Amino acid sequence: MDQLTVIDMHTGGEPLRIITGGYPDLPAGTILQKRGYVRDHLDHLRKILMFEPRGHTDQYGALLVKPDLPGADIAVLFMHNEGYSTMCGHAVIALGRYAVDQGLVKVENNNARVKIECPCGMVVVDVAIRDGKPADVSFESVPSFVFRRDERVEVSDYGEIDFDIAYGGAFYALVKASHFGLRFGHDPVSEFIEAGDRLAKAAAQSVRLSHPEFDELAFLYGSILVDDVEGTDNKPTQNICIFADRQVDRSPTGSGVTARLATMHARGQVGLGETREFESFIGTKFTGKIIRRTRCGEFPAVTVLVSGRAYYTGRSVFTVEDEDPLSGGFLVR
Fold it and tell me: Nearest-CA neighbor of 306 among 129, 114, 168?
C-alpha cells in the first residue's frame, strides 16, 4: 500500500495541495526538464492526488522539487486537472507562507523573502510577519506583456468576439464578460465556464503563440473574463479565470492579475506605481501594482507586485490499494 502525504491550503478560496511525500526522486536537470519528466513518467500520481475520490475537478497542486537556479530557496511544479502549468500566483502566495512556517528561510525585520523557482522563471516572494505569524504575502511577477491586442475570432453560439492575449507567466485570452452577455453577480458560473472554454479553444486555433525565451511556455492556458471597469480609478475590477479542462479559479488569479495589468498599462489605463484591486467571483481580492517597465524579447513588458493571503485547511495521508479499481482517480465533470 503506497502513501502520499500533503498539506492543503487556500489563497483567496483557490485550493493548493502541497505534496510533501510519496514522489520518487527526480533526475537532475532544469525545472522545465523536471516538468517534462513528471508529465511523461509520473502523471499517474497527479491523477491520484488531483482527481476524485481524493480531490475534485477544480483541485490544484504543487510538487516541491530540487532547485536548479542559483539562489532559489525552493522549486515547484504546478499541477491541475489537465496537466502542468508554468506559473501560478495563488500557489506562490501560499508557498511563501509555507516556506516561512517550515523554517526554510530567515525572518528579518518582520519580513521573509522566498525565492521560488517556477517553470516560467524565478519568482521573488515577500512575506510580512505580523504578531509573529505570516500575514500578507506579495510576489514580483516575471516580465509580463501583451502578445496580441484587439484580436477577433468566431466563437460557436456567440458570434465574433474581440479579445486580447497577454502573458503573466502563462498566456491568457482576456475578454469582457459583457461581450458574451454575461454579468458578474447575476449570471451563473456555468455560463462563464462555457463562454471562457469556447473562447480559449477558438483563440488557440486562430492565434499562434510564441515566447521569446522558451518554446515550452507558448501555449494558451485559459481565458479570463473581466467586467467593464476600465481601471482608470480605484474601483475594484472583477474577473474569473477558466483554465485547463474547464477548471475555475476561485481566487482573482495571481498570474492573471499580472497579465491584466500588462494589458491595462499598454492601454494607458494604469501607470507605473499605481495599485489596482482585483476581485474574484466569490468576492476575494488581490492587489496588483506595476513596479517597473522592462522588455521580454521584442515585447515591451512590465513586472507586477501581486499581494494576497493564504490559509491552511488541513493535512492528509492518502493511501493507494492495489485491489481498488478506482485507485488511479476519476472525474465526473
Answer: 168
Phi (first) and psi of residue 202, to 5 degrees: -70, -40
Q: Which three three-digit cell numbers place residue 319?
A: 493511501
Report strand pairing: 14-21 vs 2-11.
antiparallel
Domains of the chain: 2-139+312-317 (3.10.310.10), 144-309 (3.10.310.10)
Residues 6+ apart with CB under 8 A from 40: none
Q: Among residues 190, 193, 151, which one has the least CA distance to residue 173?
A: 151
DSSP H stretches of helix in the chain: 31-41, 43-50, 89-101, 189-206, 254-266
How far lies 165's CA from each of 67, 76, 259, in Å? 30, 25, 8
- Please check the confidence at residue 234 and state whether its pLDDT lies above 80: no
118 as an active site residue: the answer is: no
- The residue to which cell 507586485 is assigned: 305
Strands 14-21 and 275-279: unpaired
pLDDT digits (tens, 9 = 90+) for 149-199: 999 999 999 999 999 999 999 999 999 999 999 999 999 999 999 999 999
C-alpha cell at 242: 477558466
Share of the chain above pLDDT 90, in %: 93
Tell me which residue has cell 508554468.
86
Q: Are 276 and 291 in contact (CB under 8 A)?
A: no
Q: Quote the CA–CA distance of 238 and 50 in Å, as a whole number.
A: 27
293 Cβ partners below 8 Å, 6+ apart? 272, 300, 301, 302
95's CB contacts (< 8 A; 6+ apart) are 16, 18, 62, 74, 76, 114, 116, 125
Given the residues 88, 118, 241, 296, the one annotated as active site: 88
